[in-house]
Amino acid sequence: KIKILIVEDDTLLMNMYKTKFETEGFEALVAADGDEGLVMLKEQKPDIAIIDVMMPQLSGLQLLEIVKKDPGRYQFIEIMSCPGGCIMGGGQPYPVGTDYIALDEELMKKRASVLYGIDRAKTIRRSHENPEIQRIYKEFFERPLGPKSHHILHTSYEKKLPQGIYKK
User: Fold this and answer.
1) Other Cβ atoms within 10 Å of 150 Cβ, number
2) pLDDT one-digit tens code per residue, 141-156
3) Parallel, antiparallel, or unpaired: how do β-strands 165-167 and 100-102 relate?
């Protein structure tokens, strides 16, 4: 059985991932923060680790810096996040004392500019061009858009409230 370690401080997300992976036949281990994740990486030796980037105490990025010091141990690390925060994600500034959350369009534009600048500076900007992603598809998923990758990686979409102003 493939052993997956989920390092996530959001209990809801952690339990969702755990349930999904166990339903699919994987052994799923969980750690609620980076410190616990580091211990479990060393003791449990998972085949795959899914690590949240933004966590209190030892962040996911700090954990990865420690992991990088043992290059023979891990062959692949993927970080799925919005560095610096998603452009229209949570934590947006909003007016205090009202019933609405109004996203600051000027701040959003500044945020987008910074994030797009970071992206432009990257050597590999598309996941399908990453040699490690190509190898995983070849060795594990067998092929892009195949039944195995579709079953494991795809999610469903549900319509959400429009971006901009939300009623609390």
Assistant:
1) 11
2) 787 778 887 777 776 6
3) antiparallel
